[in-house]
């Protein structure tokens, strides 16, 4: 894996290589989280309502841990 050249909070629009996509389950108002795989092996996230806003950059291990927890229902209380 390459050394990260991306910093948390940088403008999502400045990540030129990003091919942003979101879940097909996003709501009709386009309020969703968008993700992009980066050449460094990291994953960037942004708020689809603010595509020019900040991006958060995570390692693959961080994303895997989050997805594992989400699949196990650990974050269900946040949607109630």
Count, helices: 1
User: How many E strands?
Assistant: 4
Q: Summarize the helix and strand pattern as letters.
A: EEEEH
Helix content: 10-25%
Shape: globular
Share of residues in strands: 15-25%
Indicate the topology.
Layout: E1 21-22, E2 33-37, E3 43-47, E4 56-58, H1 60-71
Antiparallel strand pairs: 1-2, 2-3, 3-4
Would you write up a description of this structure?
With 80 residues, the chain is of the alpha+beta class. It is 15% helix and 19% strand. It has one helix and four strands, in the order ββββα. It has one helix spanning 60-71, and strands spanning 21-22, 33-37, 43-47, 56-58. The protein has a four-stranded antiparallel β-sheet with strand order 1-2-3-4. The chain is globular. The relative contact order is 0.21.
Question: How would you summarize what this structure contains?
Answer:
With 80 residues, the chain is of the alpha+beta class.
Name some characteristics of this structure.
single chain, 80 residues, alpha+beta, 4 strands
């Amino acid at each position: 894996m390459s050394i990260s050249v991306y910093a948390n909070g940088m403008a999502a629009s400045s990540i030129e290589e990003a091919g942003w996509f979101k879940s097909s389950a996003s709501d009709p108002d386009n309020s969703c989280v968008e993700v992009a795989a980066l050449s460094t092996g990291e994953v960037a996230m942004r708020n689809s309502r603010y595509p020019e806003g900040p991006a958060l950059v995570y390692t693959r291990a961080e994303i895997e841990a989050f997805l594992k927890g989400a699949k196990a229902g650990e974050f269900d209380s946040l949607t109630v």
